[in-house]
Amino acid sequence: MTDIVSKLTLSFQTFRSHRLRSFLTMLGIIIGVTTVIAILSLIEGLNRTVAEQVQSIGSDLIFLQKFSWVQTGHRDLDKLAGRPDLLPDDAEAITKLSSVEIAIPQISRQLQKLKYKNNEVSNSSIAGSDENYSSVNNYAVESGRDFSRDDILHRRAVGIIGSYIATNLFPDETAVGKDLHLNGHRVKIIGVFKEKGTFFGNSLDDYILIPYTVFEKFFPRPRGSLWSRVYGGYSISIKAKDGMKIEETIDQVRELMRRRHGLGFDEDDDFELNTQQILMDLYQSITNVGFIAIIAIAAISLVVGGIGIMNIMLVSVAERTREIGIRKAVGASNNNILAQFLIESIVLALVGGLIGIVFGMLLAWLISAVSPLKASVSFWMILLGFGFSASVGIFFGIYPARRAASLNPIEALRYE
Amino acid sequence: MKKKTDVICRAVDIEKTYWLGKVAVEALRGVSLDIERNDYISIMGPSGSGKSTLVHILSCLDTPTSGKYYLENTLVSKYSDEELAKVRNKFFGFIFQSFSLLPRLSALDNVALPLIYRNVSKHERIAKAKEIIDNVGLADRMHHRPNELSGGECQRVAIARALVNDPKVIYADEPTGNLDSKTGAEIMEIFDRLVDEGNTVVMVTHDMNVAAHARRTVKLADGRIIND
Ligand SMILES: Nc1ncnc2c1ncn2[C@@H]1O[C@H](COP(=O)(O)OP(=O)(O)OP(=O)(O)O)[C@@H](O)[C@H]1O
Ligand SMILES: [Mg+2]
Fold this sequence. Notes:
The complex is a heterodimer. By secondary structure, chain A is an alpha+beta fold. Helix content of chain A is 56%, strand content 16%. Chain B is of the alpha/beta class. Chain B has helices spanning 51-58, 81-91, 107-116, 122-135, 151-163, 181-196, 208-211; strands at 7-20, 23-36, 40-44, 66-71, 74-75, 92-95, 169-173, 201-204, 216-221, 224-227. Chain B is globular and about 50 Å long. The A-B interface holds A 2-3, 5-6, 13-14, 17, 322-323, 325-336, 409-410, 413 and B 56, 61-62, 81-82, 85-86, 88-90, 94, 96, 100-102, 104, 113-114, 116-119, 121-122, 161, 165.
C-alpha cells in the first residue's frame, strides 16, 4: 500500500516539474475525452427526450395508413395516391379481430383561424373520430363530457377542444356550452381535453375534435390534389388487446386488409401499418451514425493522445537514463522500473482524462444552456472516460516503460 | 585458503569480454579474488586495466563472460536480472565517482532510496535514513537537494545511501576522484571509521594516499591481477 502511494507521489513529482510539457502531452487525450463526453451526453439526452416522446404514442397502437412514417428512398406520391382510401368500415371490421381491442377512424385538417369574441387562435387543426377516440389515445376529457355513440350516429355538431384552445379562446369564461364557427358551421363545445403537452415541439392541445360523421359533412375532401389524396383521408388507429403480441395483431390486420382490398398472393400491400417501434428504429439508425462518429473521434484522439504520451515518455526515459541506472544499482528490479514509468504514463493519461471529463461535462452543460438540446451525463460515461484514458496510458506507455526497464545499469550509470 | 565462513565474495577465473562490433575487448582475463569479512581493499591500476569492470562484476551490476562468482557460497554469476537486483539491494552498497544522487529528491529521500525496493514502510525508511545521515554528519542538510550541497556533502549522502541497507560489502569506484584532497581526506576518514566498525570496503582509486588507507591493495594491469 505504502508502495503504491510512494509510486504515485513519485509520478506526480515528475508531473509537477514539467507542468507545461505534461499539459501539452495530455492535450490529445483532453480533446478526445471532452468531445466524447460532450457528444455522448448530448446523444443520451436526446435519447431520453425521443424515447419519452415516442413512447407517448403507446406501444400497443398500430396506425393503418396509406403512407409509411419512415420512408426509404424516394416517396412515390402517385403510387400512394392510387391506393384505396381507408374507411370507417375498415375500422369496424378490424375491431372484430380477436387480437384487437378497438379500432377507430381518424381524420384531420388544418384550420386557418378560430375565433371567439375578440380572441382568436390560428393554425389549429380539426380532427374527426368517434366515441372511442380518448380511450384509444389515452386522453382524458377534463371538463364537460366525451362523445357518446349517439353523437356519432346522429351527426351532432358537437366538439371537444384541446386545452390550448380553451385557454386562448376562453381566457375568463368556461368553454363548455359555447358555440364555435367552423367553415361557416356551428359546433357546440361539449368538453375540454386534459393538457397533453408537446410532441417534438408541436402542441398536442391545439385542436378541436368532432364526430367523423360531422367532419365528412363540414369538411368534404378536396379531390384532385395528390397531397390530399395521400394524406387527407382516414387513418385507422388500432389498439391491440392487452397481453397480445403486437406483431400478431399486425399480422391479423394485414391479412384482413389484404382480403378487403382483394389483393392476390403476388401483390404488395397497398397500405402501411405504422407503430412507435418503426420511429424508434429510425431514430436508432440515426443515432448509430452518431455513435460511429464518436468511435471515430475517440479512435483518432486515442491514437493522437497516445502517440503524444509515448513520445514524451520516451523523452523522459532518455532524460532519466542516469536515474534509472542509479535506481537499478541500489536494487530496483526491471519490474520496479517498468512499474514506475508505466504508472507515470497512466497518471499522465488519467489526469488528461479527468480534465477531459470535466471539460466535456462543462461543454454539455453549456450546450444545453444555450440550445434546446438536453444533455445528460451519466456515470458510465465518466467510467468510460477514465477507462479510455487509462488504456491509452497503458497501451502507449508500455513500450517506453519496457525500454526503461531493459536499460543496462552500467551503461545507464555511465550516461551523462 | 582461509576459513570458508570468512569469505563473503569469491571470484574464480573471471573473464569479461566486450564486443565492439567484431573487435573483442578483453577487459578482464582471468581474475580470481576473495573478499573477506571486514576487508579493506583498494584496487589500483592504470586506466583501462579493468578496475571498474571488476567492481561491476563483484557488485553484481554486471555478469562475467566466463568464470564463477560466489556470494556466501552461492553461485550468482548466472543469476537473472531480477535476482541480481535483489542481490544488489540486499548485499551491497555503492559509491561512484560522480555522486550519482537523484537530483529531484532531498538528501534524506536519496538515502532512503534502496529501502523502497525492499518494501520497507515509509515511516521506517525515514527513521533509518535519518539515523544514517546523522552518522555521516549531515543531519542539518537532510532536506536539501543535491544541487544545494557541496561535492563532499553529496559524496557523504552517497555513502549514507550505500550504508542504509546494512550491506555486506561497500563498493566505491574512485570515491574521491572528483574531490579536492582535503574533502577527499574527510571522506577517507569516514571509510576508515566504517571499517573500524566492522564493515567491508572495496574501493577503486588512482591515488596512492587514498590507497594507503586500505589494508590490502590489489593491482590490476591489462585485465589481470599482478599484485595482491
Ligand atoms: N561497455 C563497454 N564496451 C566496450 N568496452 C568497454 C566497456 N566498458 C569497458 N570497456 C573496456 O574495458 C576496458 C576496461 O575498462 P574499465 O572501465 O574497467 O577500466 P578502468 O580500469 O576502470 O579505467 P579507468 O581508470 O579509466 O576508470 C577498457 O579497455 C574499456 O575500454
Ligand atoms: Mg574506472
